[in-house]
Design brief:
Helix content: 25-40%
CATH topology: Rossmann fold
Bound molecules: flavin mononucleotide
Number of helices: 4
Amino acid sequence: MRNPQGPILIAWASRTGNTANLAQRILEILVREELPAVLVPAKDVDWASLQDWSALVAGSPTYGSGDLHADWDQPERQLRDVDLSGWPGAVFGCGNPRYVTPWWAVDILANRLKNCGAHLLVPPYKADTLTGFRVRDADGWIEDLARELHRVRDEES
Ligand SMILES: Cc1cc2nc3c(=O)[nH]c(=O)nc-3n(C[C@H](O)[C@H](O)[C@H](O)COP(=O)(O)O)c2cc1C
C-alpha cells in the first residue's frame, strides 16, 4: 500500500556527511519543483507502515568491503518482507572508485528495491568522492527524478 499523492520519503545514512548533503540537495530540488518530500534517517523509518508515502528514494555510502552504511543493515533486512509493488523509487550514494567494491551499497539498495517490486524511475546516482565531490553535480539527476515523479503523480491523479 502507498499513498500516490503523499510525500516522497528520502531515507538516507551517512558517516562523513557526503551522502547527507546529497540527500539534503534532493530534498531542496524536489521541494523547489513542488513535490512534497521528507528526509528521514534510514534507521528512524518505520518500515512496517509505509502507507503514507508515495515514493521511496534511498541513499547510502559504501563502507567495509562493499557494504551498506551500518544504519541500513536492519532496514535492508526489514525491507525484504515489504511489498513495494507499484512503488516508484530511486537510489543514490557516495563512493570512491579507488576501492575494489565501488558504490556497491548503491547497487545493493537498487536490487533491494527492485526485488521488493519497486520500479526505479531513473538510473542509480553514484557520486564520486575521489575526484572532488560537488553536491550540485547531482542537480541534473535530481531534476530528471523530479520530472519522473511528476509524471507518475499526474498519471495517478
Ligand atoms: C573504511 C572505508 C571504506 C570504504 N569502502 C568503500 C567501498 O568499498 N566502496 C566505495 O565505493 N567507497 C568506499 N569508501 C568511500 C566512501 O564511500 C566515501 O568516502 C563516501 O563519500 C562516504 O560517504 P559519507 O560521507 O556519506 O559517509 C570507503 C571509505 C572508508 C573510510
